[in-house]
Amino acid sequence: MWQMTRQDLRDLAVGAAFLGTGGGGDPYIGRLMVQAAMDAGKTVTLLDPSEVPDDALVIPTAMMGAPTVLIEKIPSGEEAVASLRRLEEFLGRKAYATMPIECGGINSTMPLVVGALTGLPVVDADGMGRAFPELQMETFSVLGVPGSPMVVTNEYGDNTIIQARDDKFMEWLSRGVCIRMGGAAYIAEYSMSGADVKRTAVPNTISLGIRIGRCLREAKQNHKNPIDELLKMLPDTHYSYGRIIWGGKVIDVRRETKMGWALGYAQIEGMDGWRGTMEIQIQNENLIARVDGKVKAIVPDLICIMEAETAEPITTEYLRYGQRVVVVSVAVPPIMRTPEALEVFGPKGFGIDEPYTPIEKLV
Amino acid sequence: MIRIGIDVGGTNTDAVIMDGERVVASFKAPTSPDVMTGVSESLNGALTQSGVPAQAIDVVMLGTTHFTNAVVQRRGLAPTAAVRLGLPATEALPPMVDWPPELREAIGNRYYFAHGGHEFDGRVITPLDPDELRRIARDIAKRRIRTVAITSVFSPVNTEVERQAGEIIAAAVPGAHVTLSSDIGRIGLLERENAAIMNACLRDLSKKVMGAFRAALDRSGIKGRFFLTQNDGTLMDAGFAERFPVLTFASGPTNSMRGAAFLSGVQEAIVVDIGGTTTDVGSLHRGFPRQASIAVEIGGVRTNFRMPDVFSIGLGGGSLVVEDKPNGNVSVGPRSVGYRLTSDALIFGGKTLTTSDIIVAAGRADFGDRSKVADLPPALVAKTRARILEMVENAVERSRLTPEPLPVIVVGGGSILVDDRIGDLNVVKPHHFACANAVGAAIAQVSGEVDRIYTLSKSSRDEALADAKRQASDAAIAAGARAGSVAIVDVEDVPLNYLPGNATRIRVKAVGELSL
After folding, report:
1. Number of domains within chain B
2. What pTM does this model have?
3. Which one of A115, A358, B89, B297 has the fewest beta carbons within 10 angstroms of its own beta carbon?
């Protein structure tokens, strides 16, 4: 059990953007919300999954919807807490802790807001191990913890309880409610026991986000190469391996919306010894990187585009022609690479007709 | 058409007189603390040099860093009330939440939440409550606050509630200056609100400064119209600028890049602006600076203005040159003698080795006293010149967006540091290169911009784009562009992620020639 500092929070905003692999939304608003709570004297306590009693009730919280809406319609701050309280009421039990469902992007910070406002500890783990676009793309779901009952709440406190036959249908129903609520809504779902947290969650992903942010910051302070330092740090985590898969200049970015997906691709012309052009396919997040048709990295392994000069992770909406970038791919933990997990959020989950090959085995 | 361009920089105030496309005179004067003295001096200098009578001047274009500096230095800012419409949403983060505390205190840290605002698709979040706004207005009046910034959720989609709230508050607060966020910014509530609040707190100052600019022009006998340049390199007339001083932020780099494009006649290029202390490098596309894609901070406040994507390095004509004795390495900058060049540099009898000394010693320029640098070791001169070139090359390489051999336009007082080539690229040094920023102001055009979210279930993408283009063109004409000259220069269309329903954010900019 440990208390989060303001510096941790700033580091997490950078690390979460890295783990967002291009998506998940800018954690800026969430970071300010936690900071405002800290300014008001509130604290955020993080719990290692091993510290959660097996029979304790954990209720994860999150924001769902469009990050572009969030930066304009900032929440009242009470929405996610209200979802958690409503779910407690529905279950007839009090939560012992909250937890992220997603450690990449904005949702790394939303449960911290809930933790600060309610005093509940936040479990240092999540169900995506990165950012994914849909609510069924969770190790929780893959390993048998149902997302339902789920609560969706808006800034008025309007809320709905969704009990769906499976998590994919829960995603579909709640997405409709989210649009009616203005395109951004705040949820509580995947309530589970402490034993299930230990069995189904990707552990220590919030502290990983903090470590990534800290590593990049300290490398810059000490005039070391931030990306090299990051790659050296990874073997010390359960994201055991990472390497630079490309370096060059963005020469084309295409985007289009289809069925609610922000689809697109970016082309990165190789420089500094990288010959050819890398094409990265985007579906909210970076999904697959190819050079001359040859796969260089593929979902769910992380594909993160970073600014070459500053080592800042670049989200897809900030990708621009002309940027100098380095592309890094990182292995996700084994819990995210089982056949059952790959079925949901591997290439197949995104309709990509390409087998999954771990980054360690690709050249 | 005879026009004058004036650039009020941190060190110098430059004036140029242009007859049509021709620069007929340019004059540099030191920037004065009151700004006006420097403006008058450069204006009169340029008029005298050109022989053009003051009455013949049709129009004056002025670029200034005065308002940026006021925020950065926290001076001349008026106590301001921020009113946000959006309850029950947005309460998690109050206005000015991420500002430096001393700036927030400098303007009184006074804010109010009220009902109002829209959803992304134009639905109302909560109707406006006029009684609530009147209560807020009474409190504002009681506190003797006279400047108010109003920001409503998704006001770029629907500006109506900000307008209504503005009317209610203006009616209840005698003499109130009201700034509406939708008149200034784009999507991103905090950033747009920040810009609106900064604008509001500059209103008193802008009245004073614009009055003084006018007085300086009157004193010189100039009767022509008077414009200010804004951050995208286009113009706003004096009355509009007085209401929207925040739009002058960061117009400096834009002006110098536009001036470089004009003076050289090149539309696609890298521009290197070498001053006394820093070098700004950016790229031109169709004669306009390429814009930065990330949030830009001004005085510690996050904004979403479209600023030119400029990369700055600590290299200029006054940069210190230091030789590391043991290994013989030479370091250049970032420290600089700045405006003390003419007293501290070796060639001016000073004791500090600067880049200017090296260039004079190398025989690439001749000013000051050459004999003072005659003894500099040739190896040191050569090494320093190589280092300077390397620094410029790296900066240029960073801004270079295509492998095509674009020319590099070099402008600014420190242009002597660079020769005819940077890496594999040719260097263009246009005439009047030292006053490129004032030229950029003189030739500025007029723009109109739209940034909003369209729901594509209601209209097709083509219809939405056409609508946005029409609105941007209308805005340009309303701002003073000649109808026939307006062209769309920038279109950006970004779908909203994680949101089925096909909503897309469209941003369009139209630019035209000033109509006189």
Report:
1. 4
2. 0.85
3. B297
